[in-house]
Each structure stands twice: as structure tokens, then as C-alpha cells.
Amino acid sequence: MELRQLEYLVAVAEEASFTRAAGRVHISQSGVSAQIRRLEHELGAALIDRSARAARLTDAGAAALPHARAALSAAAALRESVDEVTGLLAGRLVVGMVTACTVTGLFDALAGFRRAHPGVSLALVEDDSAALAGRVRSGTADLALIGAAGRLPADMAALPVVTEGLAVAVPPGHPLLAARGPVPVASLAGYPVVCLPAGTGIRAALDEACAAQGVTLDVALEASAPGAVADLAARGLGVAVLSESMAAAHAGRLRRRPLRGPGATAQLALIWRPAPGPALRALIGHCRRAFAAPAPAPGEGKRP
Predict the structure, then answer these.
(1) In the predicted model, is pLDDT for residue 295 greater than 60?
(2) Of 184, 209, 205, 190, nearest to 304 (Cα)?
């Protein structure tokens, strides 16, 4: 029995696909299948049900899975303990980031970490916040920059980066600008809304604020990039809802007002699983230092 066979078993179980598992472990699909068959032969039982379209664990495979994970965790802990004693940092870290997000503090931290620890390779993946949190939970990402609606995942360690309110952004002369001051959440009910998609922290904050007020939104259009949301609003296709800093970045063509209501606040934070290994602890240290530095001018660089 080899550790790589256990790794492939875990990958197939979590991906429910030999093809996706092969991509995850960076070998051919036939290689993954062959190694799992060898493991099955050694254990004397089928671990994967190959009869359906999706690869599913058999009863024997379900019984073996937690032990496979425990063995892999033990092997990783062994390597980390030796590395910590010798001062050697090596391996690979997967860092997640909200799609279309450009947060210079994270990039500075990655650059500083790479210079200090060239033996650790870095991979960057983009996804929505909900999916990134899932990746960290499953171990397919080590650290992720996510947006959240006020509350961060309770099962994660976290470093809050930005907390700010939501704002509406509309072309000059829009009826929402008639009254000065913040716009109540209830006022959005009378207009089509343009916003970020579900899974982003800003959308979660908007949905929570509306739920708290009993407001039903008419979401006319969604876009993954804050600039695209602003472009659509500038063309009269709806009221843009963004963070205050995102809305401020488009002050030349849109007028903004803070959105008033319970829960109308979003935050950007780094999350990771408790008890990180030496390499991840070092990267977290670089992140703490980078985000403790003076922040850049508000703009699209912040995307909760």
C-alpha cells in the first residue's frame, strides 16, 4: 500500500470522477485508475463503483476513506515536523482568490513569501467566495481571500482585511438622488438592480439586508466584475449595488449613495483551516505584514 494510492482514492472520492481526480493529482486518468485497482487488489475489495456515470465509493470504499485521509494527514504532519526542526520550507501552497479581485496586499504577500521561501511553489485559483470556503474546508486550497456578509466561517481561522458598507450607484438625475443622504434598502424595490452574482460577499450582504427588511429585489442583470456592474448602470440598465470603495471608483459617471439598513455591510478576509503547517504559517505572516501596511486609495482593488 502506497501513500499515492491513498491520495488518488481521496481525490476520486471528493471529485466523484476519475477525470477530475487525475487533473487534481496531475497524472493521467489511466494512472489513477491503475493505482486504485492495485489498492483494491491488495485490500481484496472494490473501493470505487465504476458502473454509474459518476465514480462513487462502495461500502468498503466509504469505510476506507477516513483512514486514507488520516494516513495522508499523518504523513504531511511528519514532513512538516521535520521541516520545522531543520528550518526547511518546501512543498506547494494553493491560494484562492475571489474572481476578478485585485487586492495588492495579497499580491505583495505572495511576492515576499516567494522571495523568502523559493522552495515552496504557489498556485493561485479564482472562484466565488462560497466555493473558495469549500476548497479550504476540503483541503484543496490552503488559504483563500473571500468576501463575506458580516460573519466569517466559524470553522476557519481568519484575518479580516476590509470591512465597508454597501452603496448604490446611478447616473446623474436618477430618482434615487432626489433625497440627500443614505438610500434605504426598501427603496430598491421600485427599481431594477444590477449587482454581483451569488457567492460573492457583497451579494450575500445585499441579500441579507433585503431579507431583514422584507424587500424583494428585481435583479435585472448580474456581472462578475465590479467595473461591468458600473458600466451596465451607467447605461441605465439598473441601479448598481457595490461596496462604497467600488462605487467611488466610478464617481466620474455615476453618483453614489450609501445603502442604509441592517446587514448592509460586507467584508473581505483571508481564511484558512486551524493548525496550519510551517509553510502556510509563514505565508500567513507575510499576509499580516502586507495588510498592516497603509492601504491603497479606494477603488476596484477592494472586492468583498
Answers:
(1) no
(2) 205
Amino acid of residue 19: T
By CB atoms closer than 10 A (0-12, 13-18, 19+), residue 123 is exposed
- In degrees and rounded to multiples of 5, residue 94 shows phi and psi of -105, 120
Q: Please tell me the distance from the alpha carbon of residue 46 to that of residue 32, in angstroms, as a whole number.
A: 15
Task: Give the number of other Cβ atoms within 10 Å of residue 212's Cβ.
Answer: 13
Averaging pLDDT over each range in 8-22, 82-96, 100-114, which range is the top one?
A: 8-22
Identify the CA nearest to 271 among candidates 165, 149, 147, 109.
Answer: 147
DSSP labels for 87-124?
A: T---EEEEEEEETT---HHHHHHHHHHHHH-TTEEEEE
**Cα–Cα distance, 76 to 96 (Å, whole number):** 21
**Cut 0.90: pTM above it:** no
Whether pLDDT at 89 is above 70: no
Contact (CB, 8 A) for 156 and 133: yes
Cell reading at 184: 434605504
| Model confidence at 301: pLDDT above 60 | no
Q: Which one-letter DSSP state was computed for residue 189?
A: G
Q: What does the block give as the cell for 301?
A: 482593488
Which residue from 246, 228, 250, 224 is spatially nearest to 237, judged by alpha carbons? 228
- Rounded Cα gap, residues 283 and 124, in angstroms: 13
DSSP state of 68: H
At 198, list the grid cell: 451569488
Amino acid 175 reads: P
How far is residue 128's CA from residue 145's CA, in Å, rounded to a whole number?
10
How is 114-173 classified by DSSP, letter by letter? Answer: HHH-TTEEEEEEEE-HHHHHHHHHHTS-SEEEEEESSPPPTTSEEEEEEEEEEEEEE-TT
Q: Return the exposure string of 17-34: e unless at least 16 CB atoms fall within 10 Å of the residue's CB, then b.
A: bbeebbebbeeeeeebbe
